[in-house]
Amino acid sequence: MSSSVVSDVREAREKYVSSGVATPPLVVDAAEGSRVRGDDGRWYLDWAGGIGCQNLGHGPSAVVAAIHEQVDRYLHQCFMVGMYEPYVEVCRRLAAAFPGPGDAYKSVLLNSGAEAVENAVKIARAATGRPAVIAFERAFHGRTLLTMSLTSKVVYRRTFGPFAPEVYRSPVSIDGLRGLLRSDVDPESVACVVVEPVQGEGGFHPLPPSFPSELKALCVAHGMLYVDDEVQAGIGRTGPMWAIEHYGVDPDLLVSGKSLGGGLPLAAVTGRASLMDAVHPGGLGGTFGGNPVACAAACVVLDTVAAPAFRERSEALGALLRSRLDTIAMDFDVITDVRGLGPMLAVELVDAATAAAVVGAARARGLILLTCGLDGNVIRLLPPLTLSDEDAALGLELLQAALREAAN
Ligand SMILES: Cc1ncc(COP(=O)(O)O)c(C=O)c1O
After folding, report:
1. pTM over 0.85, yes/no
2. pLDDT in tens, 60-89
3. How far is the CA of 62 from the centre of ligand 1 (A)?
4. Is 264 in the pocket of ligand 1 (CB under 6 A)?
5. How many Å lie between the centroid of ligand 1 and the Cα of residue 94?
């Protein structure tokens, strides 16, 4: 893209793009590995990754090569018009990677995390014949009508009601959920619970250690399905392929997205064949879901993340970041918590204004960060999991400098 076009991006954005889409001042004109280049020619260390979509970094060579190869073979087909190999290859890999015994798992491929969560609910309703869905406090599942209804943050809901019916909200506690099942919704009418293993947008809260297994036991007792939303926490973000692996629980349905497509839009619902086949032919699908180019990229992503070396590196990165963040936290009163799971880490600050000031000061120094949390006071770290020790150290130095500036 020519530099004259790039220099007009901010102005054109004001004129042509809805202000409902919130944007930072950054304009990107190139990206490589752990960095993006702004239109000022400056390279930034990217610890946002397009909101967790670049677990392998920007433009990993094997992914890009697979994309080029697929672009030269064919582009869109629509799986419902003509079947093709990349789609079934992604589903084969998702079956092999499913956190449960054996490989009798099937998938449907979609375009976005929200679309995949919607489809997981459709499948759960079809498989159980029940209408109700339970989501949790601090949940984020997307911006479509149903997923916004499952989401628990006002900024994503304000002015957009009425919301989808038969959605119930529980605290992230078994006692709280038991209470909900006594007071608000008959468990025998619940199709599924939808839950993130690490609540992402809600502030990087890993589920309490015993919660997933207790939740699964309650699901089994009442015939409710456990839908594991791994859109942000999956594809190696916490070390293993899926964050639920930390908890040793087999979900009924697993939703993936974001980094699955290596930078291209792709999401999936995967589950036992008996559940996935409960839907009548024609009930699932979509024009673009499982686009061949995105699938070609995803095959390489899944092979890369499944390799033991990738997990070892992610876990080493997580340990390094965690110990440094814990040390940094001792120097700053504005830091109220450091938390996360493996390399999926966040720093909680006293308030949203401080978090925004740190993000701004970090950007000015060349580090891209994102906030999250119900109160917008949490800084989440979503660096590529391929980050070198040198870049990890540099990012932490920049974060520290930004904290020093914002805390004063
Ligand atoms: C846990 C979770 N589920 C669902 C979604 C929605 O994904 P998408 O933005 O691709 O629709 C997100 C997006 O951030 C997410 O973090």
Report:
1. yes
2. 999 999 999 999 999 999 999 999 999 999
3. 25
4. no
5. 18
